[in-house]
Amino acid sequence: MKKFMFIFIVIFVCVYIGLFSVKNYQVAITHNLVTKSVKMVTNGLHVRSPFVEDVIYIDINRQVNLVEITKTVGKASYNISVAALWHVTNPMQYYNYTKDSSDEELSKNIPLNIESTLNANLNNIITVEDLNQLKTLTSKPIYLAKLGVSIDETKIIKITQLQNDTSLASSSSNESVVPSLSTNSNATIKANNRTIESIENAYYTSQQILDQTSIEEANLYKTIENKDPRFYDYFRKLNIYVENAKSKTEIPSLDKLY
C-alpha cells in the first residue's frame, strides 16, 4: 500500500510540475533537451515532460519600437524618428532567430533590422517638402522573413535637421597619445575593462529609458490623432517646420497648414 501511494505521489508531482498554461496573447515553444526536437503549442493548458522539456513563451501581441533613420535631402541631413508597430507572425522563425540571443542583443538587433527595412522606403523622398508631408513609411504590412515578424504600421514622430558637428575635428598637435598595453600593469587593464563595461551598461540603460519615453510619446500622439485627426496633422506639420525652418518666412500661413 505504501509503495502504491509513493508511486502515485511521484506521478502526481511529475504531472503537476509538467503542467503549463499558454495565454491567448502567447504561443509556447517546447524544446526537448534529449531529442533536440521543438514544437509549438497555442493557448490552453498543456503538459510537458518535466526535467526533459523546456518551455519558451513568445508574445504575439503588437509591440512598438522607436527607430532613428538618417536621410540626406539636398545638402542637409535629417533625423527621422519613427514608431514602428510590429508583431510576431511566424513564432517558430522568431524562436530560431532569438534563441541564442540575450535580451540586450535583441533590444538592439530587432530595431536595427526594422530600421534597415524602413530606410529603403525613403528613396522617393527628394525634397524638404516631401519630408514635411511624410506621415508613414508603410502603405501595407512588411514581412521580415529573417525575424519572422511583420511591421504593421509606422508613424513619423519627429523630423529634425542635423547640424554639422565640427567639434570633433582636431589638429594633429592636439591628438592624444594612446599608451601601449605593454606599459600598463594587469591591474590597470582590468580596471579599464571594468570602467568600459560600466559605461556600456549605463549607455544601454539610458537607451532603454529613451526608447520607453519615445514609445510613450508615440502612444500619446496616437491618442491625439484618434481624437482629432485634423488637429494632429496640423500639429505635426507645424512641429516639423519649427524644427527645420531657418526663418519665419518659410512657415506657411495658418490656412495652408490647418
Average pLDDT value? 76
Largest sheet: 4 strands, antiparallel
Tally of helical segments = 7
- Low-pLDDT segments: 165-185
Sheet-strand content, in percent, reads 25-35%
C-alpha Rg, in Å?
26 Å
Percentage of residues assigned to helices: 40-55%
Shape, principal axes of CA atoms: elongated
The arrangement of helices and strands along the chain is HEEEEEEEHHHEEHHH
Number of beta-strand segments: 9
Please identify the structural class as seen in this structure: alpha+beta
Distance between the termini: 84 Å
Q: What's the arrangement of strands in the largest beta sheet?
A: 6-7-9-8
User: Number of domains in the coordinates?
Assistant: 2
Q: Regarding quaternary structure, how should these chains be classified? A: single chain
Write the layout of secondary structure elements.
Elements lengths: L1 H17 E4 L3 E7 L5 E4 L2 E4 L5 E7 L3 E11 L2 E13 L2 H8 L4 H17 L8 H5 L9 E3 L4 E13 L24 H42 L1 H16 L9 H4 L1
Antiparallel strand pairs: 1-4, 2-3, 2-5, 6-7, 7-9, 8-9
Give the key terms.
single chain, three-stranded antiparallel sheet, 2 domains, 258 residues, four-stranded antiparallel sheet, alpha+beta, elongated
Structure write-up:
- It is a single chain.
- With 258 residues, the chain is α+β, with helices and mostly antiparallel strands.
- The chain folds into 2 domains: 16-59; 63-163 and 189-257, no CATH class.
- Helix content is 42%, strand content 26%.
- The protein has 7 helices and 9 strands; from the N terminus they run αβββββββαααββααα.
- The protein has helices at residues 2-18, 91-98, 103-119, 128-132, 186-227, 229-244, 254-257, and strands spanning 19-22, 26-32, 38-41, 44-47, 53-59, 63-73, 76-88, 142-144, 149-161.
- The strands form 3 sheets. It has a 4-stranded antiparallel β-sheet with strand order 6-7-9-8, with helices on both faces. It has a 3-stranded antiparallel β-sheet with strand order 3-2-5, with helices on one face.
- β8 (142-144) and β9 form a beta hairpin.
- α5 (186-227) crosses α6.
- The chain is elongated and about 95 Å long.
- The termini are far apart.
- 12% of the residues are buried.
- Mean pLDDT is 76; it is low at 165-185.
